[in-house]
Every structure is written in C-alpha cells, then in structure tokens.
Amino acid sequence: MLYLSSIPQTALKELEFPKNIKKVLIFVEEPFVIQQVDLLKDISRKVPNTLFHIKASSVSIELEEVLSENFSKLAAHISECTSSELTAYLQREKIGTHLLLIGPKEVVNDWEKTGTKVGFPVDAIHKFVLENNFKQVFCAKCYHKHKQRLNECNHCPNCLTQLSISDHFSKQHSAYLGYINLEE
Description:
This protein is an alpha/beta fold. The chain has two domains: 128 residues, Rossmann fold (3-Layer(aba) Sandwich); 47 residues. Helix content is 29%, strand content 30%. It contains six helices and ten strands. Strands 1-6-5-2-3-4 form a six-stranded parallel beta sheet, with helices on both faces. Helix 6 links the parallel strand 5 and strand 6. Helix 5 packs across helix 6. The longest helix is centred in the middle third of the chain and has 14 residues.
C-alpha cells in the first residue's frame, strides 16, 4: 500500500500493469478526480479499457465539468460505493480485470475487502492511500454529513452544534461520528 502524501505523485504515473491486462477499474473519491485529472488521464491512456467508479453522494458541477472535458460519459459511474453495490458490480467483471483503489485508508481497505471477497487476486488489486487533513463527519444531532478539517473547531455547519469527533468510523454512514459536545 502506498501513501500518496509520502511518495512522489509520479508513483501513480509509473504504475505498470501487466501487458495482457484487459481492463482497469479505478475506484476513487471525488476530490482526487478533480485535483489529479491529468494523472488519471495518463493512467487511462496506458490501458484503453479504463473505467472510473467515483465515490460521491451527488454529482457536483465541478466534477461534471472535469468528467465531460476529459473522459467519456461511459467511462465514469458515480455512486455512494456501498459494499453491496460494489459486490454486485465486481461480480460481473471478467478475469483479467485489475482494480486501482485510490482514497482514504478506511475506504481503500473496505474496497479491497470487497474485491478479495468477490474473488479478485491480490496481484490484481493496486492500492494508493491518500492521507488528507479532512474527515467525513456525521452529526449526531441533525444527521448532516460534512467534511471537517482536522485540528479545527468542530462545529456542524448545518446546525452549528459543537461536536466531539469520534475515532469510530461508521460504515453505515461512511463517516466518523460527531457526538454533541456537552462541555460548551
């Protein structure tokens, strides 16, 4: 597993797939697509049959522009990337397909577990973990999900409640739990 904050960005560019590869499925979170579009275009040039599975709760205008300007509409599937959805998606893939997983550690590990559970061999799964300064937080008061910069004041932007961010990552909500801080 490679951490993108601790290796040069060229590591993804230099990623070599086997010559007989038929297809690459790239599982990635929305912010990385927007930030690293040139890098992803390079990868898709190496393997002509490259499809993107982008984790996003909805399609932002920025993501829509990046995809329409750089990739075929058929090349990208946008969803919440739930485990059951990924299992059904990956079960339809043929032998010889490789997975390129790009995202935060928890997300990449979940995607990898799903891939191995479905039957993808370990050597067909390539992982790149992004270390970022943000956590997806689920507010226990108003049930709003938002990105929270680490080491910042922990207030929900929706209800303005001060939150205490847990280390527990909820698979159900795909976020860290933000409990109401009673020490206000």
